Amino acid sequence: MGVTLNMAAQVMATRDGLLGASRLHYEHRDIVEFCREWVAIAEISVHVGLHLGVTRVLVADLIALKFLTTRGLDLPEDRQTQIIERVIRGLTAIR
User: Fold this and answer.
1) CA dist., res. 11 & res. 5, Å (int)
2) What confidence tens digit (pLDDT) does each residue in 47-65 have?
3) How far apart, in whole angstroms, are the C-alpha atoms of residue 27 and residue 32?
4) Residue 59's closest CA among 82, 79, 42?
5) Terminus of the chain with fewer CB atoms < 10 Å: N or C?
6) What is 35-68 written as a DSSP string?
7) 22-45: pLDDT as tens digits
8) Residues paired with residue 69 on neighbouring β-strands, in sequence order
9) What is the pTM of this model?
10) Is 7 helix (H, G, I), strand (E, B) or coil?
């Protein structure tokens, strides 16, 4: 995997990612296409309907391929978890 994603990390598709998305398997492709702007890992998880841990692995794969780029927040792990849980609850409520 190579990348340890911060729970509050955001990702965005790279130019190469958008150009190469059609060659990817469906979960990877859906993630790249969804990430045209900065998106939180939790938001991706809700959008693609996968467990947060699975989403983190798939996103890490895409970062390693340079199809996504990342930025994170330097927050304590417990605070990161609180933020992610609030985002998931909010996104689930608007579904």
Assistant:
1) 10
2) 999 988 899 899 999 999 9
3) 9
4) 42
5) C
6) -SS-EEHHHHHHHHT--HHHHHHHHHHHHHTTSE
7) 999 999 999 999 999 999 888 999
8) 12
9) 0.73
10) coil
